[in-house]
Write a structure and sequence with these properties.
Helix 2 packs across helix 3. This protein is of the alpha/beta class. It starts with a strand and ends with a helix. It has a 5-stranded mixed sheet with strand order 1-2-4-3-5, with helices on both faces.
Length: 127
């Protein structure tokens, strides 16, 4: 299994990400996007994303939100609508920066990640 990891600057925040089996993008498979829980990070997913990516032959993207895991610490206090902002601003910009904005995506969210998934604009999921 191939694994790419690194940091990417999204809306002035360095976000840590992992891309698993990125070469499968060439086969037009949807990208599995894993959205962690409110107190979690990429690490809490353990080997589940890798196992699922291998089993269904789809690339997988994981990232640590601001204030989590290896990403930048929070710079300001979160507002009540921070999950909306993650879904409507941060994720689309992350997709653009990683050049997957036109690939289909399957969002897999746990807890806060599940809420973010629900706030994701439908239009972005179809492109």
């Amino acid at each position: 299994m191939e694994r790419q990891e690194g940091y990417i600057k999204v809306i002035d925040v360095n976000l840590f990400y992992e891309f698993l089996n990125k070469s499968l993008l060439a086969k037009e498979k949807p990208v599995l996007v894993f959205l962690h829980e409110g107190l979690g990070s990429i690490a809490q997913w353990k080997d589940f994303p890798a196992l699922l990516s291998e089993k269904v032959k789809c690339p997988a993207l994981l990232y640590d939100r601001e204030g989590h895991g290896k990403s930048d610490a929070l710079k300001t206090r979160r507002e009540w609508n921070f999950m909306h902002e993650q879904a409507q601003k941060v994720l689309p910009e992350l997709f653009n920066q990683l050049h997957i904005e036109h690939h289909k995506k399957i969002l897999i969210g746990h807890s806060d990640g599940g809420s973010i998934q629900l706030f994701m604009p439908e239009a972005l999921m179809k492109t």
